[in-house]
Amino acid sequence: MTDLIITTDGFNTMSSSWGDIDNDGDLDLFLANDGSKNQLFRNEGNFVFSRILSTDISNTNAKSFSSAWADIDNDSDLDLFVTNAFQNGQRLKNNLYLNDGTGHLTEVTNEVVVMDEGWSYGCAFGDYDNDGFQDLAVATTRFGNVDEADYLYHNNGNSNHWLMVSLEGNVSNKSAIGAKVRVKAIVNGTAVWQMREISAQSAYCSQNDMRAHFGLADATLVDSMVIEWPSGIRQYRTGVLPNQILEIEEDLVNVVKEELPGFGFKVFPNPTNSVLQLEAQFSESMKVLMVEVFGDTGKVIYKTTFSNVSGHWQHQIDLRKFQLTPGQYIVRVGNGLSAEERKIIYVY
C-alpha cells in the first residue's frame, strides 16, 4: 500500500521497530531517522496510522540508527531505547523513553544507558540472568580510528511482577516467529490486555530476546492468556502465576493430521467492493476448515472456522463491514497443517 502516512512522509529513515505502545492489540511504529526528527505513529486499525507529536521523541533532530521496545520497569507498557551515531565527529549519547501507559513517552536523562557516549548501531533487550527484568545490549561502531567496546547494561529491577513466555512450534516454525501472545491481568485495579509478537528481527542490526516478556506491575495473577500460532492454532491458559518463565509447545492434541486434499478454491468477484464469494469442492471430509482474510502487513481482518466440511462448499464475506482501505488482501483456507491462498483486490 502506497497511500499510508507511514509510506508518504519523506525522511532519511535508517530503521523501524514495531510495538504495541497503548495496549490496544495492534502494532505501532517507530522510525529512527538520520538528520531529521524521529517519528512515532499510532496504529488506529484498518491500515490507518496517525503521527504522535506530543512526545519528546519528535521534538529534536536526530542522528538515530536503531531502536528497541521493552517494558523495562515492568509496569505493563512498552518503553523505547534509541541509538545514535555519525554527527560531525562528535560523540553522541543514546535515548531512553518511558511510557505512561497511554503511548505518551517521556525522555529519561539520568540513567547510565543514556550517559555513555560514542557511536552506537544496534541495540537489543533481553533478560540474560532470568530475573524477570529486561537487560540491554548496545553494539557500538568505530569512532574515528578506534573500535570501541560494546555496552551491556544490567537492569536492577524493582518490586513489579512479570511473566516471560518461551514458545516452541510444531506445525508452525520451531522458533514460533510470527506468533502472537496476549495476556490479561488486573493492573492497578484495571483489566489490561498486552500483546507481544515473536519477530526474527527487532530493528537495524538488532534482535531482541525471542521470549515474550510482560511486565505485570502489581498483578498477582494472569487470568487469561491466548497464543496465536502462525499455523492458525490457538492455545489458551488461565490462572497463570507471575514471576516465572513459562515454556509452551504448540499443541497438537486437537490438530487434524491429514494433509489438505486438492480442491478448486475460488474467490470472486475479484476485484470487489462489497461481498466476496468463496467456493470449493472437497473430495474428502474436512474435520476442520479455517478461513482467514488478512492484509499485506499480516494483520488478520476476518477469521472463522468450519467443522466437518465435505462436497460443495460456499461462504460469503461482506468486506464492507471492516472499513478497509483499497489495496491487496489475501484469503487463506486451510486445516492447520496446510493451506491455499488467493490474492484479492479491494476497491471502493
Low-confidence spans: 254-259
Shape: globular
Number-wise, the strands total 25
Helix content: under 10%
Number of contiguous helices:
1
How large a portion of the residues is in β-strands, by DSSP E? over 45%
The largest sheet is: 8 strands, antiparallel
Strand-helix topology:
Elements: H1 5-8, E1 13-19, E2 28-37, E3 39-45, E4 48-51, E5 61-70, E6 79-84, E7 92-93, E8 95-99, E9 105-108, E10 117-118, E11 120-126, E12 135-140, E13 151-153, E14 161-168, E15 180-187, E16 190-197, E17 212-217, E18 222-228, E19 234-237, E20 245-249, E21 266-268, E22 275-295, E23 300-318, E24 327-334, E25 339-346
Parallel strand pairs: 14-20
Antiparallel strand pairs: 1-2, 2-3, 2-5, 3-4, 5-6, 6-8, 7-10, 8-9, 11-12, 12-13, 14-17, 15-16, 15-18, 18-19, 21-22, 22-23, 22-24, 24-25
Summary keywords:
mainly beta, eight-stranded antiparallel sheet, five-stranded antiparallel sheet, 25 strands, 1% helix
Describe the structure.
This protein is mostly beta strands. The chain has one helix and 25 strands. The longest helix is centred in the N-terminal third of the chain and has 4 residues, at 5-8.
Concise overview:
The chain has one helix spanning about 5-10; strands at about 15-20, 30-35, 40-45, 50, 60-70, 80-85, 90-95, 95-100, 105-110, 115-120, 120-125, 135-140, 150-155, 160-170, 180-185, 190-195, 210-215, 220-230, 235, 245-250, 265-270, 275-295, 300-320, 325-335, 340-345.
